[in-house]
Design a protein that fits this description.
Strand content: 5-15%
Number of strands: 10
Radius of gyration: 19 Å
Helix content: 40-55%
Strand order of the largest sheet: 1-2-10-7-8-9
Number of helices: 11
Structural class: alpha/beta
């Protein structure tokens, strides 16, 4: 049973032409667009609002009283889950990896403001955090609570239905759409877009180093989401760029830093150093090597994440300035 999504996201989000950015990449006028899912409104916006609209509806339908999820210290999903819980009058427990910082910065400041119970874990790998989320939910259950557990990124079949809706939105706004470029963390957004568009070839995911098994998980989840939404199984071939995340999740790279400047100074568009900066670096690389043509009608999905710019790990790196740009067509 597919739940009716709750009104947690400001949708439809804007779809904006990015002709100045496109020109820097040697693209034709009207070829490059930005889908502004950073403008979904929930605690600063981001792609997770569309997923939480379905996940929270499912949680309420099941009589849950506490949302439980987790992620990296600068997790956007965690921030927005805490906000959704506050809006709906639910309790919330979040599991953050990487150990407690000496002082909160970036997303963690907002986490504290929203008031969830915070569990810090030293688990650094994807499935270690998943296990910590399950453990936190089990402890709550043993204490008589009714937790609703969500994996990292809210990457479930139910959550990904939010991006079936987004795919329909894009089709109605830009019928000539040929490609969507998106950051790939846990893979749920990518899977939902593929399920909605019906073709793997229409989505280029850019791996940000979150999940080690994206190549298996995205097609499996896309097929499950399509079936849940009553859509045909997706056709085409999976497209994921695994070359942009540097030494690991959250690591800085020169091409990400240059992408931040390119978006900011060409379009006034603020990207983040963990997800969207690397996704734009992937778009630029695809344009440079011909995977994206001059006239390919391309949508860059802006998934949010601005608070990470103000994290201690990135603020000085951003202020230091970008390396010399070498990508322009």
């Amino acid at each position: 049973m597919v739940p009716t999504p709750l009104p947690l996201a400001h949708v439809p989000t804007p779809l904006e032409r990015a002709d100045r950015l496109g020109a820097a990449l040697g693209m034709a006028e009207g070829a490059l667009w930005v889908k502004r899912d950073d403008c979904t409104g929930l605690a600063g916006g981001g792609n997770k609002a569309r997923k939480l609209a379905y996940l929270c509806a499912d949680a309420l339908a099941k009589g849950s009283d506490t949302l439980v999820t987790g992620g990296g210290r600068q997790s956007n999903h965690v921030r927005m889950t805490a906000a959704a819980a506050a809006k709906l009058g639910l309790r919330c427990t979040i599991v953050l990896s990487g150990g407690r910082p000496s002082r909160p910065t970036g997303n963690v400041v907002i986490d504290h403001l929203l008031g969830p119970d915070i569990v810090w874990t030293d688990a650094g790998d994807y499935y270690g955090v998943e296990a910590a989320i399950e453990y936190a939910a089990a402890e709550l259950r043993a204490a008589g609570r009714r937790p609703y557990g969500m994996p990292v990124g809210g990457a479930t079949t139910i959550g990904a239905l939010g991006y079936v809706d987004a795919a329909d939105e894009l089709r109605s706004e830009l019928p000539e759409l040929e490609l969507v470029v998106v950051a790939d963390g846990s893979g749920g957004t990518h899977a939902g877009l593929v399920a909605g568009l019906g073709d793997h070839d229409l989505v280029l995911g850019v791996d940000v180093g979150t999940r080690p098994d994206l190549d298996e998980q995205v097609p499996t989840k896309a097929a499950e989401v399509a079936a849940s939404a009553g859509r045909p199984a997706p056709t085409g071939h999976l497209r994921i760029d695994h070359e942009r995340f540097g030494t690991g999740y959250g690591a800085t790279t020169d091409e990400c830093r240059a992408a931040l400047d390119l978006a900011g100074r060409r379009e006034g568009l603020v990207l983040d150093p963990v997800y969207t900066g690397k996704a734009l670096a992937g778009l630029v690389a695809a344009r440079r090597d011909g995977r994206i043509g001059r006239d390919t009608v391309t949508v860059f999905l802006h998934t949010g994440g601005m608070p990470a710019l103000f994290a201690a790990a990135y603020a000085e790196w951003v202020a230091a300035g970008a390396p010399p740009a070498t990508w322009s067509a």
